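Let us practice reading a record.
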Amino acid sequence: MGAKKRVQKIAEYVILVCPHCKKGTKAHVDIENCPQSYTCPKCKQEVRKPVSECCVICAYSKNGKPCPRTLYMKAKVKNLEIRNI
């Protein structure tokens, strides 16, 4: 029996929670893109990333996970297999 291969799962969609209206919105995410702002479709407010965060996904995702770009970079450093879910 060989060693188990470790896998990093990267989601294609994430729920972003608007800090103004507290409503969640499903957003498509990409490994290539780290959005710096987005407009909430419910309250029409523009949401920008905080200075301390890499992007709006890292700052406002519902589950608190980092953005796909960050997960991808960490997986490459640790030599993990990458799977999109």
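A brief commentary: The chain is about 20% helix and 30% strand.
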